[in-house]
């Protein structure tokens, strides 16, 4: 009798999760159809992107310890 209660509880939880997933999919499908694509934001700051890329490259080299002989 205990196993049937466990099975019923598991089935109820799985049914609830399935219903939530279906509702989420329907909501996503309806918003994707009704909303126009997002307009691109202003011009990109290439100078800032280049600086961040340079900093990330330097940190990567430091992590690889390829700059230890220069310090």
Describe the structure in your own words.
This protein has about 70 residues and is mostly helical. It has one domain (about 1-35, about 45-70). It has helices at about 1-35, 45-65. The longest helix has about 35 residues, at about 1-35. The chain is elongated. The model has no long low-confidence stretch (mean pLDDT about 80).
Key features?
71 residues, mainly alpha, 72% helix
Distance between the termini: 73 Å
Strand percent estimate:
under 5%
Categorize the overall geometry.
Answer: elongated
What count of domains describes the coordinates? 1
Radius of gyration: 27 Å
- Count of runs of 4 or more consecutive helical residues: 2
Order of helices and strands: HH
The total count of strands amounts to 0
| Fraction of residues in H or I helices | over 70%
* Biggest beta-sheet profile: none
Task: Please identify the structural class as seen in this structure.
Answer: mainly alpha
- The averaged pLDDT comes out at 82
* pLDDT < 50 runs, ≥5 residues: none
């Amino acid at each position: 009798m205990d196993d049937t209660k466990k099975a019923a509880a598991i089935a109820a939880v799985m049914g609830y999760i399935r219903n939530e997933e279906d509702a989420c999919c329907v909501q996503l499908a309806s918003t994707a159809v009704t909303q126009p694509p997002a307009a691109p934001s202003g011009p990109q700051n290439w100078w800032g992107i280049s600086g961040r890329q340079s900093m990330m490259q330097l940190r990567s080299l430091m992590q690889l310890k390829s700059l230890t002989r220069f310090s």
